[in-house]
Amino acid sequence: MRNPTLLAAPHRAGFFSGSLVLLAAMAWWACVIVLRLTGVSLSWPIPPAWLHADLMIFGFFPLFMLGFINTAGPKWLGVAAPARMHWISSIALYALGSVLVALATWMPSLHAAGDALHVVAWAFAVWIWADRIRASTAADRRHAWLVLAAFVLALPALTCQLAASLYPTALHTALWVQCAIQIGIWAFLLPVFLIVSHRMVPFFSSSVLQPYVTWRPFWLLYTWLVLCLAHAGLSLAGWADPRINSGITDLVFAALLLYASYRWSLRRSFKVPLLAMLHAAFLWSGVALTLYAAQGLAASAGIYMGGLAPLHALTIGFFCCTLLGFVTRVSLGHSGRPLAVARVTWVLYWLMHVAVLARIAGEFFAREATLWFSMAAVLSLLILAVWGWRYVPMYWQPRADGQPG
């Protein structure tokens, strides 16, 4: 990261490092799944599913978040950007941790070191964001405070992950992994994605859809966040006692998410493709919670179905599609380019939805499951590789309009 342009703004460094880790994680997982499909049996020092969860939850999403929040956050708060060495240090340390975790397949001793760097770097990032909030005199800092709360809750998730990598053969390692997954997704990632969507989707919509009534009540956001924590708690309890599930909670959650998608004008958003990318991605949150609700209610009746379909509807459908939408928008806007989606980007975005459907299909067609999983993994990798080829160079190139940043 010695390129001066790459370090000219937080989003450049965060998005660049996040993109590289994302591509590395997807390439490794595609290899794992394809090897399974071809019948090749390898002895892995770390269970691939555990390393997959670590990389997909904690590997790259936080890097994109640090790039976004240190760029857009100060504008929300009306304060100066954080000190340059502060955001560079937090992003660089976290990225190094992600690289070590990605290398752990071949050198298992690096796993704990990478997770330890994640804890240290994230604690520093939390301090940086808290300092910016304290410096602000903005009348409305609710979104900022809620993001901070979610960032703080990432720390116990990262700590559980560190415990699991430090003691991979301990009696309670599986419990540590499960805590890291549930807290990481439901108390950290999903809250952050919902908070940012609550603030930005209606805002972007109001700027291009006319007439448009901005609707983003805070009771809705607070309810979402409470339901996130409820799901996390019930899932952990259900891991110990299968009779417990979050079916009813998730049904209410799904209804509120789908209603928000309707109120935010999903259908009208397709007039502007860059906006539709955010709306269509948000729709996956409601679909995912609907699947979770159906799965939980069916389990209450003694019927077990769907496997990890709801999880991947949430993580690939909502998280990854939202990531493509937001990062594409920020990359274009902050590189001085027009806010217009090229045809190739539009096609790639919808292919990512196809990858989600393929991954979900694998949970319902057991005989061909590995084939479906391989299709989803390889397609996702190709999509992200082509997207990266188009957008990653923007992070080390000067702005097209000659402006700083």
Question: Could you describe the 3D structure shown?
Answer:
The protein has 14 helices and no strands. It is mostly helical. The chain has two domains: about 1-170; about 200-395, no CATH class. The mean pLDDT is about 95.
Structural class: mainly alpha
Order of helices and strands: HHHHHHHHHHHHHH
Give the helix level as a range of percent: over 70%
- The N- to C-terminal Cα distance equals 16 Å
Keywords: Membrane, Transmembrane, Transmembrane helix
Transmembrane segments: 12-35, 55-73, 85-106, 112-130, 142-167, 173-197, 218-238, 244-262, 274-295, 301-327, 339-358, 370-389
InterPro entries: NnrS
Protein name: NnrS family protein
List keywords for this structure.
single chain; mainly alpha; 405 residues
Reconstruct the topology from this structure:
Blueprint: H1 10-37, H2 48-59, H3 61-77, H4 84-103, H5 109-135, H6 142-166, H7 173-208, H8 218-240, H9 247-263, H10 266-269, H11 273-300, H12 309-333, H13 343-361, H14 369-391
Helix pairs in contact: 1-2, 1-3, 1-4, 1-14, 2-4, 2-7, 3-4, 3-5, 4-5, 5-6, 6-7, 7-8, 7-11, 8-9, 9-11, 11-12, 12-13, 13-14
Quick overview of this protein structure:
With 405 residues, the chain is an all-alpha fold. It has helices at 10-37, 48-59, 61-77, 84-103, 109-135, 142-166, 173-208, 218-240, 247-263, 266-269, 273-300, 309-333, 343-361, 369-391.
